[in-house]
Amino acid sequence: MLGTNLSTSSPVYQSLCAFFDAYLVRRDLDAALAQVTEDIYSLGTGVHEEAHGRAEFAALLQEELHSEPNPNHYQIHSYWEKEVAPGIYSCLCQIEVSAEVPGEGRAYFSTRLTAGFRAEEGKYRAFSLHMSCANPIQQEREFFPLHYAAQELKKMNADSQSKLAELFNEIVPGGIMGGYLEPDFPLYIINDHALDMLGYTYLEFCADTEEKIANTIHPDDLPGVIRAIADSFAASDKYDVEYRLRKKDGSYLWVHDVGRKIVTEEGRPAIISVLVDISERVAYQTLLKDNSIRDFLTGIYNRRGAEECMSALLTAERASYGFLLLDLDDFKQINDRFGHATGDRVLQMAAAQLRAHFPDGICARLGGDEFVVLVPNLSELEVFQLRTQSLCEAYRKSLSTLCTGHQAGMSIGGLFFHQSRSFSSLYVQADQLLYQVKHHRKDGICIHSLP
């Protein structure tokens, strides 16, 4: 969770956590104020969230705690720190905050933080806090420290400019890369940090990419990156986009790219940007997303995942589809006779059989012992029926092994169709066919071909 060569034992990191534990989790105003200096200045993500001094800062926190006293959860990602003078540190990180919203579940909010800490009375306290959101419609000059520094830089001599540029290069929490605004973005500049992120030396990077930035962007992401840059430059001289970059070893990392349009010394239009590795954040978000659409017990999709994935598949042009709605016969008897642990194993076995017999389809557990399958690109109805019959036979055989002396199968209502239809309409029709099977006899299959 921390940057290179840092650990949770860092006293600055510990002070930062102490502040957010008090502010976000315990909602303890006095404990939060104990972590900041008397001359604290801060900028929040809101228009009026600005404070000069501890008194103004306390008033801001008090107003927020009064309006929202409930505790929040937070995680710190991509943490970096640097000692800029004896006893004075700057740090940068991303903070993921989550809270329970009544009636809506858990809400997540991501923000970026830059902060300054100095040693006071044997501990580190924050003397500056600046929180910002990565937003394509960001307020003008939100990154005021860099804007100010750029103006002041013009007044310095060459040696001072070089040292300040080197300092910025060291503390920026990401790589710097630039390309000409021409097809494939010919390489203009890249710093050592960016090369380290990608695992290259400069010469290796040039040889592997043919000195074209486009050759290191994931092919699936490149059109979106080009479009995002063009759309942004139609309104301003800066852009903000996330995408994947290929590393030397062939793997990809996710980056947050914040860039600006410039004109190089030879008069060619170009872009220069800061790249921050957000792979950890993307992986965490992907995990949250996957957990929300997967059935915990069986590993296949749940109802929400089924509706999302099947609805997306049904909008594509396909030759034909097969849809199955099924439940396990006498499943309650299995739980009553063999126990719920065995019942869980039967559900897992049924899901495994679905995946094995329909590896080209989307399989889901809708709840209890009810499952659904959507299979695209089927050649003909008879093939679909044979695969379904094979599924039933395999389930009966495996069940007799898991539950000795218990004989039962599965009941199935199915549809074979050619034109796109909604998930809900397919479910209703298949459910009617399943009801007929259950009403007349169990362990049966009824598949209708739709016009």
Map the helices and strands.
Blueprint: H1 11-25, H2 29-33, E1 36-43, E2 50-52, H3 54-67, E3 73-85, E4 88-101, E5 105-120, E6 123-132, H4 144-153, H5 158-171, E7 175-180, E8 187-190, H6 192-198, H7 202-209, H8 222-233, E9 238-246, E10 252-263, E11 269-277, H9 279-293, H10 303-314, E12 321-328, H11 331-338, H12 340-357, E13 362-367, E14 370-376, H13 381-402, E15 410-417, H14 423-440, E16 445-449
Parallel strand pairs: 1-6, 15-16
Antiparallel strand pairs: 1-2, 3-4, 4-5, 5-6, 7-8, 7-11, 9-10, 10-11, 12-14, 12-15, 13-14
Please give a structural write-up.
With 451 residues, this protein is an alpha+beta fold. The chain has 14 helices and 16 strands. The chain has a 6-stranded mixed β-sheet with strand order 2-1-6-5-4-3. Strands 8-7-11-10-9 form a 5-stranded antiparallel β-sheet. Strand 4 and strand 5 form a beta hairpin. It starts with 10 loop residues before the first helix and ends with a strand. The relative contact order is 0.07.
